[in-house]
Amino acid sequence: MQRNLFLLIWMGQCLIVCQLYHFHYIKDNKKWTEAQQYCRENHTDLVTVTNMKDMKRLISILPEDWRGAWIGLYDQTHGNRKWRWSLPGVEFNKSETNWYRDEPNDAWGMQNCGILWDNLKWGDISCNTPFNFLCYNGEDI
């Protein structure tokens, strides 16, 4: 009970039920679908970043030498560019985005997966490019 009360106070915005995310930086180059599979087998999923509070917490776990990492953002529509989070049931909110300038650009019509670059902005690149990635575990409290 004390732990839950502490977490409710620490999270600041929780009134009834909240999600507490534990972020994990995985230093292992994988394609986006391989990274997603790894996260789903060992954690919950690739990271979903729906607000700047999550982004700030996420940044705190990144090593100094990181250059880019997969996040759970993808577009499988091939043409009409409808971005989604890989975690089912989480809607992509266009007003809560962190795209780098001129992104997403779908260069060569093959950039359908989201990455967090070391400038802390999102980009779209080919899902077949191996990168480190970010997973999370979610717990209801």
TrEMBL record:
UniProt xrefs under PROSITE patterns: C_TYPE_LECTIN_1, C_TYPE_LECTIN_2
Signal peptide: 1-20
Keywords: Disulfide bond, Signal
Residue intervals of the C-type lectin domain: 23-136
Highest taxon listed in the record's lineage: Eukaryota
InterPro entries xref list: C-type_lectin-like, C-type_lectin-like/link_sf, C-type_lectin_CS, CTDL_fold
Protein name: C-type lectin domain-containing protein
Species of provenance: Poecilia reticulata
